[in-house]
Design brief:
alpha+beta; 5 helices; 32% helix
Length: 139
C-alpha cells in the first residue's frame, strides 16, 4: 500500500493473506480496517494490498483491492525470503518454501527502508500485517 508522496509514518504495505480458501472480500476488508484503526489511520491512506504469489487466485483478495481502489501486488518467493520478519511459520515454510508470507509481503511492498508497524494478526480466516516506509514506491 503505497501512500502517494507521504513520508515514513504513512502506511505502505498491507497484506490481506487469506488463511482459508473461500474467505470473502468482506472479511479481508474488515481486517484491513481493524488493523488501520489500531493506529488511527483512515482507510483512504491505504496504498496497496500485497500478498504472496501463492494467493494469486484468491478472489476475496482481488475483490478487496478492487473495492478499496488500491493496487494488488503479488510478491514472489525470493523477495518473500529476503525480508527480515518477526514471525516464522514451519507450516508455511514446508508448504511454500518461505517462512513468512504476511509480514514479508507487507515489508516488500512497502519498499526501501520499510518497517513493520503491525505484526501478523489473524481474524476470521484472514491474516494481515502493516508496514510503512520512508521511501514510497510508485505503482
Amino acid at each position: 500500500m503505497q501512500l502517494k508522496g507521504h513520508e515514513a509514518c504513512t502506511p505502505q504495505a498491507f497484506n490481506g493473506d487469506r488463511d482459508k480458501e473461500g474467505v470473502g472480500s468482506d472479511r479481508v476488508i474488515g481486517l484491513i480496517r481493524e488493523t488501520l484503526k489500531l493506529l488511527k489511520i483512515p482507510p483512504e491512506r491505504l496504498d496497496a494490498i500485497a500478498t504472496g504469489y501463492m494467493k494469486r487466485d484468491e478472489d476475496g483478495i482481488r475483490e478487496a483491492a478492487r473495492l478499496l481502489g488500491v493496487p494488488l501486488e503479488f510478491i514472489g518467493p525470493q523477495e518473500l525470503r529476503s525480508q527480515n520478519t518477526c514471525s516464522f511459520s514451519d507450516f508455511v515454510y514446508e508448504k511454500f518454501g518461505v517462512g513468512s508470507v504476511c509480514e514479508a509481503a507487507a515489508l516488500s511492498s512497502a519498499g526501501k527502508d520499510s518497517k513493520l508497524v503491525i505484526r501478523k494478526t489473524k481474524s476470521s480466516g484472514v491474516t494481515a500485517a502493516l508496514a510503512v516506509s520512508g521511501t514510497p514506491k510508485a505503482f
